[in-house]
Design brief:
The protein is of the alpha/beta class. 38% of the residues lie in helices and 13% in strands. Bound molecules: pyridoxal-5'-phosphate (PLP).
């Protein structure tokens, strides 16, 4: 049996998405900048996709720009906010995705003040500390906090952060790569200046993302070149992928409630089965339905000699998941997220992440495989 439970890393392309994309790889190959019929066909497909993203966010189409990936979107915002909007201070967290963390650190090297907000052991932002940091800000500040953590699933209260940012006149960016297509986001209701998204996380193709930039806070492009994307992202557009992004988001929006109910049930089922069969394991991040992304489940394995090879043994059994552990002094570099929440460094963590294509039968197989791996492994060892 083959089971794919690594949907936070990437998802299977939906066949309907592929079907929508194919003509733009074959028949409709025009360059969207060309004014003839081939070009116009490609251009109108891009604009259709843009409208879908804008509708999802309740934004204006003129505030949505396609990028090569989610990483590019976050780089564009963080670096652009410093370069073009006078940002001299960034407040972020230590458990952001590296595309944010490394961009923030790059800005710090240029002299920008960087502060990390305190987190609790489940990865929640300490909102009182965030307010303290904002209150003490005398320079233009950007807050960059992710909507859902990709390793442990803990959700940010975007509304609360948005209110704080408004109160202290700070800019707000959220890396929404793990939540676009899964949670609704209305930029008219929640004041948020910048968002990043990536198609391959919601059953679209890889290598295409988007950035939402509020019209009141425009930044300049990262790339110099042609006038594509209304001068915001030079380079001939990745037309078939943009078409795929639009279709994938349209499908995600259509089936959001249904998918959410299905995946929440699958996750709860896996939690119950794991607790019943391997009671020694622990869960990382927020466990509540309201506080955690319903597609992500981070599990710390029992602290014994079998744990180190969990991912390898799962892979042998045909099961795909992701791993990580907190860093112990002197050991190889661990997960910065697990370290950031001070997860038990003696335990190896495995992230299972779900999609609409997974089934309870697959979960049963995964739990049975894990139970087999940990059978008779009572002996405690040191660092894993
Ligand atoms: N942000 C988060 C939270 C992610 O999980 C990822 C993907 O792993 C990214 C950003 C980067 O997205 P992309 O792969 O499109 O560059």
């Amino acid at each position: 049996m083959k089971v794919y439970l690594d949907n936070a890393a990437t998802t299977q392309i939906d066949p309907l998405v592929l079907e929508e994309m194919m003509p733009y790889l074959t028949e409709f190959y025009g360059n969207p900048s060309s004014i003839h019929s081939y070009g116009r066909k490609a251009k109108s497909a891009i604009e259709k996709a843009r409208k879908i993203v804008a509708k999802y966010l309740n934004a204006s189409s003129s505030e949505v720009f396609f990028t090569g990936c989610g990483t590019e979107a976050s780089n564009m915002i963080i670096k652009g906010a410093v370069r073009d909007l006078g940002v001299q201070r960034i407040i972020s967290s230590e458990i952001e995705h590296h595309c944010v963390l490394h961009s923030v650190q790059a800005m710090e090297r240029t002299g920008v003040q960087v502060d990390f907000v305190n987190l609790d052991s489940e990865g929640h932002v300490d909102y009182a500390h965030l307010e303290e940091l904002l209150k003490s800000s005398s320079s233009k500040t950007l807050v960059s906090l992710m909507h859902a953590n990709n390793e442990i699933g803990t959700l940010l209260n975007v509304e609360r952060v948005s209110d704080l940012c408004s109160k202290y006149n700070a800019l707000f960016h959220s890396d929404t790569v793990q939540t676009i297509g899964y949670y609704p986001l209305d930029v008219q209701k929640i004041k948020i200046h910048f968002l990043s998204g990536s198609a391959h996380k919601f059953h679209g193709p890889k290598g295409v993302g988007f950035v939402y930039i509020n019209s009141e806070t425009p930044v300049k492009p990262l790339l110099d070149g042609g006038s594509q994307e209304r001068n915001m992202r030079a380079g001939t557009e990745n037309v078939f992928s943009i078409v795929g992004l639009g279709k994938a988001l349209e499908l995600a929006l259509e089936k959001m409630d249904e998918n959410r109910a299905y995946l929440s049930d699958l996750k709860a089922y896996m939690v119950a089965q794991l607790m019943a069969h391997i009671p020694e394991l622990k869960f990382n991040g927020d466990r509540s339905e309201a506080g955690s992304n319903y597609k992500v489940l981070s599990v710390s394995m029992p602290p014994n000699e079998k744990a180190e090879l969990t991912l390898f043994n799962l892979d042998i059994a045909g099961i795909a998941a992701s791993g990580g552990s907190a860093c112990t002094s002197g050991s190889e570099k661990g997960s910065h997220v697990l370290e950031g929440i001070k997860a038990d460094a003696q335990r190896k963590a495995v992230r299972f992440s779900f999609s609409k294509y997974n089934t309870k039968e697959e979960i049963d197989y995964v739990v049975a495989t894990l139970a087999k791996i940990f059978a008779n492994a009572g002996e405690k060892v040191g660092t894993v």
